[in-house]
């Protein structure tokens, strides 16, 4: 125990409380409903797949849940070569 | 081809998740590519201990059921870039994981990583058996007390019977990791001695991790103790255990009773 820690409020326990509050708020809200991120990803992928052939392994997805907002990062490596050839409408 | 190590115990709460995080981080810090898999489906915790709980998108069940790509489910550690986590699912469905699914995931991870470390759930049921199923080696986490040693013995029996390696007639490499060792209680003769534990289990020792408040502080902030307080006695013991896993022949020192600092003594606090 360092001398400095005497003057801090409660040390690591504060951080533990904050992390838990954030996580549990999210988990309670999502317990009985389909995951928003999964739904977003499915639909975004479907839209992209309509236009280009993407290798699913080249899609990076990162999440960071914050207190008020969360960020969802979808990083897609799109091959050069333009649009997928659309079938001509009959 | 990477090595698959299961961290298991039978008994709950002995320090499997803590050990998975710290051994994994220590191995990764030597430059190895390491992935930690949380097998505690329904009760995931390794994400919290690793401080990655806000970043979970997909999990082991999603990948095993082929609803997500492995590369999308792996979470890279923010501190060590050769360390990854594959979180457990929070589903209540106990049968969400199948042996085929897990086998596929582990086979893919073996290709990419030097070490695949599986954090087993407590118990000896399906979940624990799936976690050990594809292991090459096992770290059996044991506290020096009767019920933990007895459960370790049952787990050793399962490792020798129910793993793919055992079924092929090969031996699975087993190590005992004694955790939460309380030197003061040992000095008073209130705890099973290390010799007793090793003799009863007739399995070699990987290390002795002392009971230490630094472990709790590290989990509060979401970090393996080896990263959060590298000079802490428990952290050093984990680093040495990791080196033994890598094959180094290091003697195991028995933890000694820690002296309390002057201030701690005045304030009547436990030594940190
Ligand atoms: N060396 C140690 N010193 C002090 N506390 C410890 C030590 N090792 C583990 N603990 C604490 O013991 C508790 C249980 O640890 P952990 O979650 O790692 O056990 P587990 O075996 O994974 O449990 P479960 O069976 O529920 O999965 C935690 O609160 C952890 O911080
Ligand atoms: Mg655990």
TrEMBL record, chain A:
One of its GO terms (biological process) is cell division. The keyword Cell division applies. It comes from the Bacteria. Keywords: Cell cycle, Cell division. Belongs to the MinE family. HAMAP family: MinE. This is Cell division topological specificity factor. The gene is minE.
TrEMBL record, chain B:
SUPFAM superfamilies: P-loop containing nucleoside triphosphate hydrolases. Pfam families: CbiA (PF01656). Keywords: ATP-binding, Cell cycle, Cell division, Nucleotide-binding, Septation. Transmembrane segments: none annotated. CDD domains: MinD (cd02036). Residues 5-225 form the CobQ/CobB/MinD/ParA nucleotide binding domain. ATPase required for the correct placement of the division site. Cell division inhibitors MinC and MinD act in concert to form an inhibitor capable of blocking formation of the polar Z ring septums. Rapidly oscillates between the poles of the cell to destabilize FtsZ filaments that have formed before they mature into polar Z rings. NCBIfam families: minD_bact (TIGR01968). Interacts with MinC and FtsZ. Belongs to the ParA family. MinD subfamily. This is Septum site-determining protein MinD. It comes from Mesorhizobium liriopis. The lineage of its organism: Bacteria, Pseudomonadati, Pseudomonadota, Alphaproteobacteria, Hyphomicrobiales.
